[in-house]
Amino acid sequence: MSKPNKTVASSTTTADVKDDRKIKATNNNECENSTSVELTRPGQQIRPAISCEVAVGLVERLYGLKVLSVSELNSYYDHNFLVKIDPQSKGNPFVKDIWPHGYVLKVLNSMDTREDRIDAVHAVQRILSTKGFNCPQPILNIKGQDKSIEDIVYDLPIESDDKKSTAEFQESDAIRQGRHVVRLFIFVPGRLLVEVPYTPQLLLSLGRYICSLQKAIEGFSHPALEQFQNIWSLDSVPQLLGFTSAIGDHEKRRLIEDIVESYMKEVVPMKTRFQKGVIHGDFNEQNILVRKVSPPEGDDSSSSPQPGVENASSDQNEHEICGILDFAHSSLSFYLYDVAILIMYAMLDSKVVDFLDVGGYVLAGYMSVDDRTLNEAEFEALKVCVASRYAQSLTMGAYTHSLNPTNEYLLMSSKNGWTQLKTFWTTPKDQLYDRWRIIIDANRQ
After folding, report:
1. Which pTM does this prediction carry?
2. What does residue 141 show for φ and ψ, rounded to 5 degrees?
3. Which range scores top for mean pLDDT: 28-32, 230-234, 427-431?
4. What is the average pLDDT score of the chain?
5. Which residues contact 11 (CB under 8 A, 6 or more apart)?
6. Cα(93)–Cα(140) distance, rounded to whole angstroms?
7. How far apart are CA 214 and CA 204, in angstroms?
8. CA distance 270 to 339
9. Is 193 left (phi over 0), alpha (psi -120 to 50) or beta?
């Protein structure tokens, strides 16, 4: 790849601006600068600090496309923008027709700016696309490349302990803090999972979907997937103890410490017995797309009594999964982790099904695909793995928000998360698993 280009960006901090799928859209003139930061270890800042105006410049310079509007998308690590393109744009020989739904400009965080890693993720997405999964595909820039490395040179330094002045902010510092991979993806239309009710049928579909996805990429590997691990990998749960200082409440902090201790005792020794393959790594409510569906005429399965169902309604709209986003955490890891992550995030926003029963529906769907199942060791470790994902989300959300208090997206999990986690963690495992087994048995085909 050619030598990185330099782009000047502002470092003024503001709240995130979100697109109409996340919250609302803005035009070019309304976008303001933002500098949310992300971390892999305490104090490390890796999230690109760029404005909407800089994003427009990147699209037009690298991709030869005329931008009509731009808006920010939610993200932890990266900086993502939804861009709408002039349908008359002809500046990119590799783009024959402009996608009417728009494109997503993804400026990758500096920690994950590794070409082999990105190539591996793109390979996973291509395999899934050929097997019928709707996931983002990168488009080629004007040089025929699916990515480029850009040195984002900030006009003011990101805050650091030594408080360097602009004059002292040397090029080496800018490159260290501002080298990022830039890509443009086709925007995948659909509603976010978090926007719709989690009915029993939808939860079953989620379990089936994740299992089908795992099977679709079964046997594929890449050295960069084998080596990948970050603070959000479930293997990194012990590292949470370095971030718990951001949790002001002693009882909550002790809860996280208790979960980490259980992870060390109950999960780590069992890893040699876990099934392994390429996983998505971040099946959360913001990365799954759905669309409304009508049940076949005469099908009343959605209205059949189901265990743990609250607030049931005969006119409850059903939805099906129509897309999966963000493969940044994909790795060669344990299938169990994908299941645990999905269960945790589905529990978080469950209003139709009792959140303690969500795991039963996800497992019932997962185990219905070609008799896929969890082995004894995986099933025994599942509760701790689900709790560990709660712990990661709540701890890292609190810590990152302490660095960037204007970004309320970082606290989404905390609204229900702490209360749920306490109830979930204090529910005896045998009682929880009995509830799940009843649901699994009730949904056997």
Report:
1. 0.81
2. -80, -175
3. 427-431
4. 82
5. 33, 35, 49, 154, 155, 156, 157, 158
6. 9
7. 16
8. 16
9. alpha
